[in-house]
Amino acid sequence: MRRIKRSLPLIAAFALSVGPVRSAAAADVRSELLQRGEYLTRAADCVSCHTAPDGEQFAGARAFKLPFGTLYSPNITPDASTGIGRWSDDDFLRAMYEGIGKDGQRLYPAFPYPAYTLLSRDDVLAIKAYLFSLKPVAKVPPRNHLTFPFNMRWLMVFWDWLYNPGQRFEVDASRSPEWNRGAYLVEALGHCGECHTPRNLLYGLDSHKKFAGAVTAGWHAYNITPDRTTGIGGWSEVELARYLSTGDSPHGVAAGPMGEAVDNSLRYLSREDVAAMVTYLRTISPQTSNVPAAHLEGARNGPVSASRLPPADELNRLHASAGVRMFAAACTGCHGWDGRGLAGTRAVNDPEATNLVQVVLKGFHLSAAGGRPNMPGFAAGYADRELADLANYVTGRFGAKTSTLKADDLAKRRSEGD
Amino acid sequence: MARLQINGATHEVDVPEDMPLLWVLRDVIGLTGTKFGCGIAQCGACTAHVDGKAVRSCVTRVGTVADRGITTIEGIGATPHGRALQNAWLSLQVPQCGYCQPGQIMSAAALLSEVGSPSDAQIDAAMAGNLCRCCTYVRIRKAIKQAAASQATAQRT
Amino acid sequence: MNARVSRRHFLRTGAVGAALVLGFRLYAARPASAETSTAGLAQFTPNAFIRIDSEGGIVLVVDKCEVGQGVYTSLPMLLAEELDADLDQVAIVPSPPNEQLYADPILHLQATGNSTSVRSSWTELRRAGAAARQMLIAAAAAEWRVDPSQCRTERATVIHDGTRRQLGYGALAAAATQQPVPQDPQLKQAEQFKQIGKSPLRVDLPGKVDGAAQYGFDVRLPGMLFATIASSPTFGGKLNSLDDNPARSIKGVRNVVRIGGQGFDVGGYKLHLDDAVAVVAENTWAAQQGLAALEPAWDRGPNAHLGMDDVVRALEAASDRGGLVARHNGDVDKALSTAATRLEARNYMPFLAHAAMEPLSCVADAREDSCEIWTATQVQARAQGIAAQVAGLPPEKVTLHNLISGGAFGRRLELDGIALAVAISKQSGAPVKLVFTREQDIRHDLYRPFYHDRLRAGLDASGKLVAWHHRIVGPSIFARWAPQALRSDGLDPDAVDGAIQMPYAFPNLLVEYVREEPPAIPTAFWRGVGSTHNAWVIESFVDEIAAVAKQDPVQFRRDLLGHAPRALAVLNLAAEKSRWDKALPPRSGRGIALAYAFDTYLATVVEVTLSGAGLVTLQRVVCAVDCGSIVHPDSAIAQIEGGTLFGLSAALWNEVTVRNGRVEQGNFNDYRTIRIDETPEVEVHLVSSREAPGGLGETGTVAAAPALANAIFSATGYRVRQLPIIKSIEELKRRA
């Protein structure tokens, strides 16, 4: 197989996907650059990480709780003193490709430069042009809190040797242009592997388990390989495309970080680009993981009637289990006793109930799907034991395997994520 | 244009199919007995029946209930369970502000249609989704039992 | 005739009645209508509460808002009792706005609150009924030329047994207007009551079980549009910019309205509204969709970083200041310095939202020269006043149709919904129904204050309480709501309500108040008002002192009471009915609280069990109540049942917290409310009494939290000093 280093045709494709080609007047060239930069900035989902809750867009200061401390994203607005207003093109390229900041300090790979390093120079500079067109915001993020030795930035030199490919995307001429575009979107701009590929002890992505699913900051980014039982092999192309564009699917709904990715990034992609991503995802090598993607044969989760009443065995547990009571009170209004919208999703099939717990705690609201579906969060009003009981009830009744969460597990989950 | 069968009458409504049944009932058709309380299926004030089952009309898209039998608080009195419940509600003077009570009665009617003589646990399971900020729960429980008993008596005689 | 306009003033115009019947009708068996009352019939209107026309239509006016407490039945019962008409013979209409005619004698305002409805009306409405009856009798006696004392009345008819003649009130209406208004009408003795003390079906209930009852949320007018609203997410934020187009492109959306932040003053009542954006549409759903589509750019303003730490720190700092002395008996410092045992406590009570089942709503039709509003308000005249200000009209051009309310709990003592609805209608050129989403309702409420209390007590060597020092730190609601109610030095009587008139006789007592306003967070009355706060603090501390003194909580309270026979009676009754001395299983406990609030004595016993995880299960509640004379006993019981559970619910779970200048809670998922499966048995025992009536609407709530906290102490040994109780769950888990 021969690989040709060739990225420009792809850019042209993106430019076409943004809007009609205009005349060559200078203002329009600039406007096209900015439009393309905006599209790429969205595809790269810069805003999700570089915006704090309640904070101004791109002004940074969002906290990332990692196993070795807390990092805060920097301000990437063009403010001269607190943002990146004084960065040259080369400064910006070096950060995106090598993970090195303007003053030469090593950046941490919470910033996905090992993915962005695949981007073409023109695309990176279009992103920069767009960022520089934004309103400068003067804001200094809080200081990072990292434990030794991770607070030694220079050690990242070794990490980069191991995990930063440090090269641009190469078109695979044996594949269709659509596949190549999908690969570029998934691997480079969308940096999907940052969440969906498990990390090793050194926080590097485990290339042997690419896209096999991983837990980060309290959320499980599921297996997105074509494996039929634990990946997305059972999803139709239409379902996948709709999921990427709206977050909604019969197999489950995007919540947490994936919900953000849909709302802030994926929903803005053109139909062609979404189709390209689907094409590429279909071809990655299947991996097996521990969360079944659908009903398992023999799971005790057959459909029950749309009754206002649970089956007798659960009725008997009603007063013994805070979880059954909470389900009766707060969940049956939408899910019924037959678990509509729950059965068959990986959230309830996961024996750790990772995402189930996060969704119960924080809820979700998908702007991309017009605010529907959505779910309220229950963190504030309910005790850990009640929520643990609820998760155990829901996984046992509608999932593949009963989770065995205790109140302490819930306390820990509460502190994860944002 | 959706065709709705509500309390035995047919209504043609020109609304988006994702509009919640609640707002179709209240704002388009003018049946205001079904109440808005939360909009997220947490309070039960909007409970109506679709084919005899209780649904939260605030999260039920009208497109999913076209041509199905919808019953609201305005029509439940025409059913034996509904009438018995309304009578019990009055005899025990259950309501205070009353705003949640249409939803309470609709949930209770769905319960009685499944279980003639519900136990406390069944009442809890079926009614836990209906909030009452005046906290009339003590009387709601009694009234459901009284309605059930009155129907049992009516059947015997 | 008395020239001064008063509540008992003879209303010759009939205009009040004509106007008020139009928008709302709520009837017992015999409906009267606006048409019959304005058809040129002779009207007998002996006072502001009764109108009888020549065809026998009897209209009774209720000047209180029906919020679920039953005033549409209990207040007409007072009138009807003395008038000698039965409830099935009368029509009941809400009073129009009129501060002179309908000012509450306790509140000095036309207002429904502070559990005054029956207390204020007990004598006054009976006198109104009796005066009318006396005039009708006099008219009949004159007609028949008999001695009035030989006439009797029954079912709206004057009867002269000697001549077997009788005339209905309608036939007497014209003649009765010629009779002088008796200044001191004879009232019935309690033994003569035919209605008071019975529990007829509340007149508002039939419509509440079949969907016919009309709340503000349900009003429909020709050409009416529907609006929903989002205010600045942060307190004091400003709308920087707004692109209307995303909303206007949604089918059914008619208008996008910007509402600038504004302050109002209605007769001393102050209200501040933040910037807001409203979407007006052909139905509520389209309006909500339109609002969701908008992305207003908010300047988050000066409170963008406000959090609970700021609130609590400020209160704690203020607690080190000396306060205004609300009450001082004896010498507390000396008693404390010589006490054998000294105790101290700090208590914290959170901000709370009202979260009535019916979210705030108001229909307004603001026109060039007039304005009509349909809503439920606890302050009718002020509602008219603020609508007039917003509409730019004199108050008399504003017509209020006051409807029943789907709960209030104090929320409808505020006028934000009315001001907003009028503003939106005015800008939209159409009648508009403004309905709050639940999120807007909770996040833009005015909140029960966060209070911080510091207490000190001293016991002598025998375990007797010899010193009590209570310092209350928190905001003043009255300073905003009715500054005329403040003591001249600024003492807020609500803040110290329940703290200075305890049933106990403490020899050395000092109660102080330190006013400390939370930054930017508006505060308001909430069910049980000052007493709910102070009873929790006081009854928890009394319980704590009893434990230190190694005395039984009931006996310790008995010993503290001094001469307070009514308090003692409810205390003993609650202990007896709850089987106070009976042993409980492990991890279970009983707690008691005694309260004197709104002229009612109440003792509540709560029984709880804790799970190994520290979860509290309510097992049983027993209340003993002496509220004096009772108009409608079944409603009295209902108020105590519901009020107690309401208080328990809030004590277990509720707090409103602020982070980055915005309220964190928004709906019933995070503002939890007790449900039927969590509801224990509730027994209410009423003490028979002929004393003047006490209030009931809020009283149950007052004793709930302390009884629960004391039960938890009894079960676990853990003293809850901070509400809600769910915040102490780790501690409870350790102890359980």
From TrEMBL, chain A:
<feature type="binding site" description="axial binding residue">
    <location>
        <position position="50"/>
    </location>
    <ligand>
        <name>heme c 1</name>
    </ligand>
</feature>
<dbReference type="InterPro" id="IPR009056">
    <property type="entry name" value="Cyt_c-like_dom"/>
</dbReference>
<keyword id="KW-0732">Signal</keyword>
<keyword id="KW-0472">Membrane</keyword>
<keyword id="KW-0349">Heme</keyword>
<feature type="domain" description="Cytochrome c">
    <location>
        <begin position="318"/>
        <end position="398"/>
    </location>
</feature>
<feature type="binding site" description="covalent">
    <location>
        <position position="49"/>
    </location>
    <ligand>
        <name>heme c 1</name>
    </ligand>
</feature>
<feature type="binding site" description="covalent">
    <location>
        <position position="46"/>
    </location>
    <ligand>
        <name>heme c 1</name>
    </ligand>
</feature>
<dbReference type="GO" id="GO:0005506">
    <property type="term" value="F:iron ion binding"/>
</dbReference>
<keyword id="KW-0479">Metal-binding</keyword>
<feature type="binding site" description="axial binding residue">
    <location>
        <position position="335"/>
    </location>
    <ligand>
        <name>heme c 3</name>
    </ligand>
</feature>
<dbReference type="InterPro" id="IPR036909">
    <property type="entry name" value="Cyt_c-like_dom_sf"/>
</dbReference>
<feature type="domain" description="Cytochrome c">
    <location>
        <begin position="177"/>
        <end position="285"/>
    </location>
</feature>
<feature type="domain" description="Cytochrome c">
    <location>
        <begin position="32"/>
        <end position="135"/>
    </location>
</feature>
<keyword id="KW-0677">Repeat</keyword>
<dbReference type="GO" id="GO:0005886">
    <property type="term" value="C:plasma membrane"/>
</dbReference>
<feature type="binding site" description="covalent">
    <location>
        <position position="334"/>
    </location>
    <ligand>
        <name>heme c 3</name>
    </ligand>
</feature>
<feature type="signal peptide">
    <location>
        <begin position="1"/>
        <end position="26"/>
    </location>
</feature>
<dbReference type="Pfam" id="PF00034">
    <property type="entry name" value="Cytochrom_C"/>
</dbReference>
<dbReference type="GO" id="GO:0009055">
    <property type="term" value="F:electron transfer activity"/>
</dbReference>
<dbReference type="Pfam" id="PF13442">
    <property type="entry name" value="Cytochrome_CBB3"/>
</dbReference>
<dbReference type="GO" id="GO:0016614">
    <property type="term" value="F:oxidoreductase activity, acting on CH-OH group of donors"/>
</dbReference>
<keyword id="KW-1003">Cell membrane</keyword>
<keyword id="KW-0408">Iron</keyword>
<feature type="binding site" description="covalent">
    <location>
        <position position="192"/>
    </location>
    <ligand>
        <name>heme c 2</name>
    </ligand>
</feature>
<feature type="binding site" description="covalent">
    <location>
        <position position="331"/>
    </location>
    <ligand>
        <name>heme c 3</name>
    </ligand>
</feature>
<protein>
    <recommendedName>
        <fullName>Cytochrome c domain-containing protein</fullName>
    </recommendedName>
</protein>
<dbReference type="GO" id="GO:0020037">
    <property type="term" value="F:heme binding"/>
</dbReference>
<dbReference type="InterPro" id="IPR051459">
    <property type="entry name" value="Cytochrome_c-type_DH"/>
</dbReference>
<feature type="binding site" description="axial binding residue">
    <location>
        <position position="196"/>
    </location>
    <ligand>
        <name>heme c 2</name>
    </ligand>
</feature>
<feature type="binding site" description="covalent">
    <location>
        <position position="195"/>
    </location>
    <ligand>
        <name>heme c 2</name>
    </ligand>
</feature>
<dbReference type="InterPro" id="IPR014353">
    <property type="entry name" value="Membr-bd_ADH_cyt_c"/>
</dbReference>
